[in-house]
Amino acid sequence: MQDRVLAVAMNGVTGRMGYRQHLTRSVLAIRKAGGVELPDGSRVVPEPVLVGRSADKLRRIAEEHGIERWSTDLDTVLSDPGIEAYFDAQITSAREEALRSAIAAGKHIYTEKPTASTLGAALELAKLARDAGVCNGVVQDKLFLPGLIKLRRLLESGFFGRVLSIRGEFGYWVFEGGWQEPQRPSWNYRAEDGGGIVLDMFPHWHYIMEQLFAPVRAVTATTATHIARRWDEDGSPYAATAEDAAYAVFELEGGITAQINSSWCVRVDRDELVEFQVDGTEGSAVAGLRNCRIQHRVATPRAFWDPDAPADRGGYRDQWEHVPDNADFDNGFRAQWEQFISHVCAGTRFPYDLLSGARGLQLAEAGLRSASSGHRVELEEVDLP
């Protein structure tokens, strides 16, 4: 069978995430490997068409990676009938308008999150895509990471019994910029530009909870701007107007309680940058980006509170077992790209759509309302009319 080429307009690939994870480690890696194999045995090779604001950056990336087409004119790219799909990794504040234009042009949509600035706008995008009959998807990369794949395996096997609670810790120290270069762009700390850790991370926590455990029904959150003054890419100081830490309790359907701390002002004392401990009646697990450790009820040691006795060398962590890989894991972003390409070209199942992305934004909005009011906020079920 002859390979099919799928031309994908990729907007925002001059940024860190768009370039490293989506362009080089996903689309170009898939292209180099000969494309995505479909259920009928045929293959689809993605061909990126770069879009952005900086001609110099686009030209440099295109020349380095052998990409034939690039443009600073999004409208011209979207008017090309040979381009079937549109991907967006721009700054959040620019995404909604571009997605609307792409849907109106009849392009299949794959996008980073949040998909829009408000829940109402995100739901409207989902409705527009549905009415236009285009495939649509939202990046939910952490579901495709080895640690969470192992966690899903445990859940599907019934390892936990009844899940009781989830405790998550995420974050690291992001340098302020005054004496060491920051690891994140300055817009992340400006609310007026769509910044803030709630908008950045709560959509991630939402799809993890929704896809692995149960829908979220309520949230109680506290936020903080711990570092009030940072330095931008030009070395100029600016006032941080967005929160850089959030501490939240999520109530899930079925009585599961999730507590997740998110912070760009914490020094890491974990095995991985994010870890989730899941406790159930039959067993517990701690899952990170790559690894997953377990302790079943029959292997749970009896713990004692004794402040006068020294802890054993290795401590409690040595009492857990590691879940084996039992498989080769691809880059998580690439794995979801392959599923989306198969969805577009073969109609295979893809549950990570714009409506799911809208529910993630709903949780972020509810978290911000809770932090502002000091009250618990319930989430109403959202769907398309």
Automatic annotation (TrEMBL):
<comment type="similarity">
    <text>Belongs to the Gfo/Idh/MocA family.</text>
</comment>
<dbReference type="Pfam" id="PF22725">
    <property type="entry name" value="GFO_IDH_MocA_C3"/>
</dbReference>
<dbReference type="InterPro" id="IPR051317">
    <property type="entry name" value="Gfo/Idh/MocA_oxidoreduct"/>
</dbReference>
<dbReference type="InterPro" id="IPR036291">
    <property type="entry name" value="NAD(P)-bd_dom_sf"/>
</dbReference>
<feature type="domain" description="GFO/IDH/MocA-like oxidoreductase">
    <location>
        <begin position="150"/>
        <end position="285"/>
    </location>
</feature>
<protein>
    <submittedName>
        <fullName>Oxidoreductase</fullName>
    </submittedName>
</protein>
<dbReference type="GO" id="GO:0000166">
    <property type="term" value="F:nucleotide binding"/>
</dbReference>
<dbReference type="InterPro" id="IPR000683">
    <property type="entry name" value="Gfo/Idh/MocA-like_OxRdtase_N"/>
</dbReference>
<dbReference type="GO" id="GO:0016491">
    <property type="term" value="F:oxidoreductase activity"/>
</dbReference>
<keyword id="KW-0560">Oxidoreductase</keyword>
<feature type="domain" description="Gfo/Idh/MocA-like oxidoreductase N-terminal">
    <location>
        <begin position="50"/>
        <end position="135"/>
    </location>
</feature>
<dbReference type="InterPro" id="IPR055170">
    <property type="entry name" value="GFO_IDH_MocA-like_dom"/>
</dbReference>
<dbReference type="Pfam" id="PF01408">
    <property type="entry name" value="GFO_IDH_MocA"/>
</dbReference>
